[in-house]
Specification:
The complex is a heterodimer of chains A (about 500) and B (about 100).
Chain A: H1 2-11, E1 34-37, E2 40-42, H2 44-62, E3 70-74, H3 79-92, E4 103-110, H4 112-115, H5 119-136, E5 139-144, H6 167-180, H7 201-213, H8 217-238, E6 243-245, H9 250-262, H10 269-273, E7 276-277, E8 284-286, H11 294-303, H12 325-339, H13 341-353, H14 386-397, H15 406-412, H16 422-425, H17 432-439, H18 456-463, H19 473-492
Parallel strand pairs in A: 3-4, 3-6, 4-5, 6-8
Antiparallel strand pairs in A: 1-2, 7-8
Chain B: E1 5-12, E2 24-29, H1 38-48, E3 58-59, E4 62-63, E5 67-71, E6 74-75, E7 91-96
Parallel strand pairs in B: 1-7
Antiparallel strand pairs in B: 1-2, 3-4, 5-6, 5-7
Classes of the chains: A alpha/beta (about 500), B mainly beta (about 100).
Bound molecules: zinc ion (2 copies).
Chain lengths: ~500, ~100
């Protein structure tokens, strides 16, 4: 009744009264400012508390980060990862008992070269983020994606996991930490923080050639994600970090989950979207923002002045929703969130329940892990799988499969180039046996076929590439190494006592 | 007749790209016989500020899904959304949540 009167008086242009004033459901006193779900309205202060609590609870309940452990925060400059950085800062400034107890560092990977930004634009973004990072006092690394071209082959090899630490030791280490080291500061800065990395133009060109060899935006995005992931793992390994912290929000993970499904990554869903991901063995990725919706992230950042940037991505220029599978899924999830908000949490909760069967062992044979995404290979499965279906339709349609001449790999590695052209003319028939037949007439290197080294989903990505010769050397040389290993194993298999081939 | 309204508009999360990259706009809505509401504001923005691709900002007579609206730092869902009656010196923020994370 009161409100009706107020609105009336507004129309007369007199009083300035807020038209609605709902109370916060938590403290039941302050005026609500944020609607989290229908009926769940929070005031500013309670929203802040709720947001921070959620972050800490996600980290706490999973207990994967040990006290004093070095954790590398992957900050893209976007809203969610910047919010994550803010949460970590917040957590370190707390009093002893509430304080986060790990040692954070920051890594930013500048993808500007892959998405066609100019040098000036890239420098501007880097300078802006540098200012944000400096203010944290943490160790930080600003790395252009071009550095992925110089990675060692070991990046795509899953390292041995450190000896398992039991939950009981977690408790002990927390206690130990609390007594010994209450005022932890981040490690001394060993890097010249003033200098932004310089990128060689030729490296940018090579990266662009690689991106352009992917014919669809979907494949390009997958490729970019793969390269970024490799560089992140490499940075963590070489700088002494044992955890990578990723800023994926709940909304992002819901998009990722549906995208993964439609791109044939069903078998890898749990690792792709779960709280932690151990496929690299020694470096474990964690996603502490997975309980925060995009809306919460944006509200928090706005209300509490968290700086973040809008950084153009691969598809920024193609503003249509159907440009790629990823983009289409995002637009679907966004609409879903708007019209059926609970559905998105359902999608995301599904990911928590997914468990891959015990096939995957971290000590496993390298031949059994995908060369690109390092998931356990899912291609040795039953006849009715999507994988088999694709193989059959490929055989029927004689789709060309991009190959690389092994001599070109040799060139990449600085060895003399041989004159083999047969390889390129070797049409892609299904199965390596056919192929072996048609190009073995001369004693020249066989074309390298990555298929046997890739999971189903990564095969689809590579199939959408016009050629794989622009792939970074570390991928090609590791592929070659695995091929040789498999060949060798075949040759000596009859002499092995336990060849694993018993009928 | 309502007097002209001076309001502060802010675009973020990439939505500013639709407004020549300018994040903050101080605008004056002309006087009209009825009070201004958010629905009319959206029409006014489309006519006067939005330079390109209106479909990325509006859908029907509301904002496109994925764009958050805050009125004076509160969720517009608490303020009556499209029916909220604008006041002089109001602060309206539009944030695109698409492609963020
Ligand atoms: Zn409250
Ligand atoms: Zn893979």
């Amino acid at each position: 009744m009161c409100q009706a009167e107020e609105e009336y008086s507004d129309e007369l242009g007199s009083a300035h009264v807020p038209s609605v004033s709902k109370k916060c459901v938590k403290c039941k006193e302050a005026t609500a400012a944020v609607v989290i779900r229908a009926g769940d309205v929070y005031c500013r202060a309670c929203f802040k508390e709720y947001y921070i609590h959620k972050f800490r609870a996600t980290l706490g309940k999973n207990r994967v980060i040990f006290p004093g452990e070095k954790v590398l925060l992957a900050v893209s400059g976007g809203p969610s990862s910047c919010s994550m950085l803010h949460q970590v800062q917040e957590g370190l400034s707390q009093s002893v008992h509430k304080k986060l107890r790990f040692l954070p560092g920051i890594v930013y990977i500048d993808e500007g070269g892959a998405v066609g930004r100019s040098v000036e634009e890239r420098l501007r973004t880097m300078a802006e983020l540098q200012a944000v990072f400096k203010a944290t006092g943490f160790q930080f690394y600003i790395v252009p994606l071009e550095e992925v071209l110089d990675l060692p082959g070991s990046v795509v090899v899953s390292a041995l996991a450190p000896p398992e630490r039991a939950n009981s030791t977690y408790k002990a280490e927390v206690d130990h930490f609390m007594h010994s080291n209450c005022s932890t500061r981040s490690a001394p800065q060993d890097q010249d923080h003033e200098a932004l990395p310089e990128v060689q133009e030729s490296a940018t060109q090579m990266l662009q050639q690689l991106m352009l060899s992917a014919k669809t935006l979907t494949a390009r995005q997958n490729l970019l994600n793969t390269l970024r992931q490799h560089l992140l793992v490499h940075m963590a390994r070489t700088r002494g970090y044992s955890k990578l912290m990723l800023g994926d929000s709940r909304t992002r993970l819901a998009v990722k989950l549906l995208t993964s499904l439609s791109l044939g990554r069903g078998a890898q869903l749990a690792q792709d979207t779960g709280f932690s991901d151990s496929r690299y063995g020694d470096i474990i990725s964690v996603r502490p923002m997975r309980d925060h919706s995009a809306k919460e992230v944006f509200y928090y950042n706005h209300l509490f002045h968290v700086t973040f940037l809008f950084i153009p991505s691969l598809d920024t220029k193609q503003m249509t929703d159907k440009a790629s599978v990823q983009r289409l899924t995002e637009s679907f999830v966004t609409k879903l969130q708007e019209e059926f908000p609970s559905t998105v949490s359902t999608i995301y909760r599904t990911s928590e329940k997914l468990q891959t069967a015990g096939r995957c062992s971290s000590t496993g044979d390298q031949c059994e892990r995908c060369l690109l995404c390092l998931c356990t290979l899912d291609t040795a499965v039953d006849d009715a799988s999507a994988f088999q279906a694709t193989l059959i339709s490929e055989q029927l349609s004689q789709t060309a499969w991009p190959r690389v001449d092994r001599s070109k790999v040799a060139k990449h590695q600085g060895k003399p180039e041989s004159t083999s052209f047969t390889a390129q003319y070797c049409s892609a028939k299904a199965g390596a046996q056919d192929c072996g037949g048609c190009c073995s007439f001369a004693k020249e290197p066989e074309p390298m076929d990555l298929r046997s080294l890739l999971c189903y989903s990564c095969q689809l990505t590579i199939r959408d590439m016009s050629s794989i010769e622009h792939l970074p050397p570390y991928i090609l040389s590791e592929a070659q190494r695995r091929h040789r290993r498999c060949e060798m194993r075949e040759e000596i298999s009859e002499f092995l006592l336990d060849s694993g081939k018993d009928d | 007749m309502a007097a002209p309204l001076a309001i502060h508009l802010e675009f973020g999360g990439g939505a500013e790209l639709l407004f020549s990259g300018v994040k903050e706009h101080h605008v004056t809505l002309p006087s009209q016989s009825e009070p201004w509401d958010v629905k009319q504001l959206l029409v006014w923005i489309q006519r006067n500020l939005l330079k390109e691709r209106p479909e990325l900002f509006v859908q029907g007579d509301s904002v496109r899904p994925g764009i958050l609206v805050l009125i004076n730092d509160a969720d517009w869902e608490l303020m009556g959304q499209l029916d909220y009656k604008l006041q002089d010196q109001d602060n309206v923020v539009f944030i695109s949540t698409l492609h963020g994370g």
